[in-house]
Design goal:
The complex is a heterodimer of chains A (275) and B (165).
Chain A lengths: L5 E3 L10 H15 L8 H8 L11 E2 L7 E2 L2 H19 L13 H6 L3 H4 L2 E2 L2 E2 L6 E2 L16 E2 L13 H8 L4 H20 L8 H4 L4 H20 L26 H4 L1 E3 L8
Parallel strand pairs in A: 1-8
Antiparallel strand pairs in A: 2-3, 4-5, 6-7
Helix pairs in contact in A: 1-3, 3-9, 6-7, 7-9
Chain B lengths: L17 E2 L14 E9 L5 E8 L16 E7 L32 E6 L1 H11 L6 E9 L14 E7 L1
Classes of the chains: A mainly alpha (275), B mainly beta (165).
The complex binds copper (II) ion.
């Protein structure tokens, strides 16, 4: 059991009532039911990304001693975030694993958000993947900020045809330099965030995106594309000065997250246009 | 276009586009294998948006089709922070860290976006006959919160053309 790799699968390959998806929903529902103060709760983990902790990495930042040099921990930071979320889910249900959402698929270009994340009920049970709990944002912070009571995330997705294509992903996979690859993949990622959130939807901005369960399926796709890139261009292929950079708040460095097998998971061999 | 949200929201003003001054092309190699439009100092503190880039088409706007005829060069996307949800000072960028300041730069430090636009640049450099390239950048807001300035969503320090031989 302990030596086996956790298998991450394509959400569109899973039947709504398959055992893998049942276990995943069960784990998400259990995390969502915990109070925000419990450090195993959905709200606590979602809070690492944007509100209230703002630990996520997006875009380059200025590096030490180098006025012009930027570094960008977007891919490794989100890999560390996903593995932390996956472990926390498996602590609730050991059969759970994160699925990925391939927004380039013909199904996604037809219906947009996959059924597993848009169906309101599975039988008689509310589907925990349609939204996630957001804690109260108290008043008395920045003047003009209206207080916001505890609520659930919402989405206003765009036109399915506007989602990124397999061609876009393939041209990014062909880039040989890590920083170049990361920048271009991040742009596709940015596009999907705006598409999924729509006008006022939570996925659309950093502050609340992590509270929507589909965040993790989106990032699982991004992480898988990085993995496919690593198979092609080298697992250890990052600038040398990235290796020891910490991925706060997780007890991991960039070097620790390069090999997904060492982290204990694997991506299912999907019939995919990216190979 | 995104569907209307379920919750009511304030009416939004159209975001302002930006037209650059002409970028000279004399120093650019013509035999490049790749050419990028590099945006520096790009603000990502507010709403999320798509930015469409047109070359030597100052009238381009959100309704202009992204075609060769309209001199469309490419686009980039910004996943914005969504405005400030902290207390006073939370979103003040500290600037470039001092040499021994061990903290990473502020998350809102303006970013760089690289748009690979090889074919469009090859085409438009030829078309411009040495008169330079004027870029029109048209932002289209995709998502935001009550804390966003939708009108001034597009803010950056500069853009340059970078070619690779
Ligand atoms: Cu993201």
């Amino acid at each position: 059991m302990a030596n086996r790799l956790t298998l991450r699968q394509n959400i569109e390959s899973l039947e709504l009532t398959s055992s893998g998806l049942v276990a995943f929903r069960d784990a998400v529902a259990k995390m969502q039911a915990l109070s925000a103060d419990d450090n195993r709760s959905w709200m606590f983990l979602a809070g690492y990304h944007g509100f209230p902790q703002f630990q996520c990495w997006h875009g380059g930042r200025i590096g030490l001693n180098q006025q012009a040099l930027t570094y960008d921990l977007f891919l490794p930071w989100h890999r560390a975030y996903l593995i932390t979320m996956e472990h926390t889910l498996r602590d609730q249900n050991a059969a759970a694993a994160l699925p990925w959402w391939d927004w380039t698929s013909s199904g996604s270009h037809r219906v947009g958000v996959p059924l597993a994340y848009s169906t309101r009920r599975i039988g008689k049970t509310p589907n925990p993947l349609i939204n996630g709990p957001v804690p109260e944002v108290r008043s008395g912070r920045v003047p003009g900020l209206p207080p916001s009571p505890a609520r659930k995330t919402t989405r206003a997705p765009g036109d399915p045809e506007d989602l990124p294509t397999a061609d876009q992903v393939n041209s990014v996979l062909a880039l040989t330099d890590f920083v170049d690859f990361s920048q271009q993949l991040q742009d596709i990622h940015d596009q999907v965030h705006g598409w999924t959130g729509g006008r006022n939807g939570d996925m659309g901005t950093i502050v609340f995106a992590g509270f929507d369960p589909i965040f993790f399926a989106h990032h699982c796709m991004i992480d898988r594309i990085w993995y496919l890139w690593q198979l092609r261009h080298g697992v250890q292929n990052v600038p040398p000065d990235y290796m020891n950079k910490p991925l706060a708040p997780f007890p991991l460095t960039v070097g620790d997250v390069l090999d997904i097998h060492r982290l204990g998971y694997e991506y299912a061999q999907a019939s995919s246009s990216h190979d | 276009m995104p569907k209307a949200p379920a919750t009511k929201s304030r009416k939004r003003v159209a975001p302002k586009k930006h037209v650059t001054t002409a970028i000279g092309t004399e120093s650019l190699a013509t035999g490049f294998v790749r050419a990028d439009l590099v945006f520096d100092g790009l603000d990502h503190s507010g709403a999320s948006f798509e930015a469409r880039i047109f070359i030597n088409n100052p009238d381009a706007d959100a309704n202009t089709e992204m075609t060769v005829q309209n001199r469309y060069a490419g686009k980039f996307h910004v996943f914005g922070h969504g405005g400030c949800f902290g207390d006073v000072g939370h979103c003040e960028v500290r600037g470039i860290p001092r040499p021994y300041d061990p903290r990473p730069a502020h998350p809102l430090t303006p970013m760089r976006k690289v748009v690979i636009a090889t074919e469009a640049l090859r085409r438009e450099i030829k078309r411009s006959n040495g008169k330079g390239l004027t870029l029109t950048i048209v932002p289209i807001v995709r998502s935001g919160t009550v804390r966003c300035d939708y009108e001034n969503v597009l803010k950056f320090d500069g853009v340059s053309v970078v070619t690779y031989a």
